[in-house]
Design brief:
This protein has 423 residues and is an all-alpha fold. It is built from 18 helices and no strands. α11 (236-266) packs parallel to α13 and α13 packs antiparallel against α18. The mean pLDDT is 83.
């Protein structure tokens, strides 16, 4: 076989592996985000509170609790991935996600089983949290490892491109159901269809992942301490850097893609219009992320992170203030769309900057654990915390809290070393 044929075969294997890994990643995040975007429709089915805001606080509290299981999933599946290979761990995590989604789809509400309904909702959400917590670090490690040097930013950006695709598909699914069902029907049973479809897609994605090419097991066998906390402890500085950056950028993500919709609805915007605004804004983010990934290969991942952190720090409060003062759907789309466009600078390098900081034997564990702790504490709780501020008539106090977190993230970005493990 000629050198040209060998190179072409290797490239084809890389592309098929990226597609297989990314498609599974898309499905897992679709399942995970259905909850966030459908919560406003099923909140009244699980909370006995009379206030819509308090109902939302209850179900988004469960949403935040799901994030608390992300570190658990990252430890379980990240350790497996670093010990026996990436592919096997990714397959098991999808089975967990399918089970959690089916459980929510068929869950009796408060009218049937009373307070047990929200307890079972919490249990299902915790299972989903374990699944997606495991998926994150493994997918990030796998995509960065199969990508050719000099194009790692571009190839790795597909982790977040498909993560965004999961969000986009979740929002689009809600818009699609509104074609067939009224708002009352969505509250009554329509939201269940979303979780059933999500569970089914998760099982189908298992077939796609059989096309993944994974040689990590052979490399990992060279390290006796692979997947262990003892080995991870040697990279404690990297853990702290990722944790600090995630503490600011993860809430920024959810403020932009989740809370902005809740914010618009609570300020009188029709839920269907708000949903369509988020749908269009996420489409922008989905399209620009791979382009910003390619750009990061030119300007450096650190520069890309700095651009976004500065933007989020100085612009979120005035942009939300502007959103509050306008009722024009076009103007609101312009604001949220611009926020999503800028979010592309972070999304493009969010996976690769983490994996470059950890050696191969703890790459999945270190990437997943350090990210999921930050996401659990600060990201998944962002909407919940914002609603708590609103309930106390201190809505914009939330942005002071966010600014503090973003300053921490900015400092950590500056401290990212020039020489990194994956280099």
């Amino acid at each position: 076989m000629s050198a040209e044929s060998i190179a072409k075969s290797a490239k084809n294997k890389t592309i098929s592996s990226v597609i297989a890994a990314s498609s599974g990643n898309l499905v897992e995040w679709f399942d995970f985000y259905i909850y966030a975007f459908a919560a406003t429709y099923f909140a009244s089915r699980f909370s006995d509170a009379s206030s819509p805001i308090v109902q939302q606080i209850a179900v988004f509290g469960v949403f935040a609790a799901g994030f608390l299981m992300l570190p658990v999933g990252s430890v379980i599946f990240g350790s497996i991935a670093d010990k026996i290979g990436r592919k096997s761990a990714m397959i098991v995590s999808i089975v967990f996600m399918a089970f959690g989604s089916y459980l929510i789809a068929f869950l009796p509400d408060k009218h049937t089983i009373g307070d047990a309904a929200i307890i079972l909702l919490l249990l299902a959400r915790l299972i989903q949290g374990v699944a997606v917590g495991g998926e994150y670090g493994i997918a990030a490690a796998y995509l960065s490892e199969v990508a050719p040097k000099g194009k790692r930013g571009f190839y790795s950006s597909f982790q977040y491109c498909t993560l965004i695709g999961g969000q986009l598909l979740a929002v689009a699914s809600i818009s699609g159901l509104f074609i067939f069902f009224s708002h009352d029907e969505m509250v009554d049973f329509g939201w269940r269809i979303l979780f059933f479809v999500g569970g089914t897609l998760a099982l189908l994605s298992l077939l796609v992942r059989t096309f993944m090419h994974d040689n990590s097991a052979e490399e990992l066998k060279k390290h006796s301490d692979r997947g262990s906390f003892k080995a991870l402890l040697k990279s404690y500085k990297s853990v702290l850097l990722v944790l600090g950056i995630t503490a600011g950028c993860s809430p920024a993500w959810y403020i932009t893609t989740v809370y902005s919709k809740v914010f618009m609805i609570n300020n009188g915007i029709d839920p269907i219009i708000a949903n369509n605004i988020i749908l269009g804004a996420l489409a922008i983010l989905f399209v620009v992320t791979p382009f910003f990934g390619a750009l990061s290969d030119k300007i450096g991942l650190k520069t890309s992170l700095l651009i976004y952190c500065v933007f989020a720090l100085v612009s979120f409060y005035p942009l939300f203030l502007l959103m509050e003062r306008t009722s024009s759907p076009l103007a609101l789309f312009g604001i949220v769309g611009f926020m999503c466009f800028m979010l592309g600078f972070y999304a493009a390098v969010a996976g690769i900057f983490k994996t470059t900081l950890f050696p191969v034997q703890v790459r999945a564990l270190g990437t997943g654990l350090s990210y999921t702790i930050g996401a659990a504490l600060f990201g998944g709780s962002a909407t919940y915390v914002a609603l708590q501020f609103k309930d106390k008539n201190l809505e914009y106090g939330f942005f002071i809290y966010f600014a503090v977190l973003m300053v921490i993230a900015l400092v950590c970005v500056i401290l990212i070393p020039k020489k990194r493990e994956l280099d």
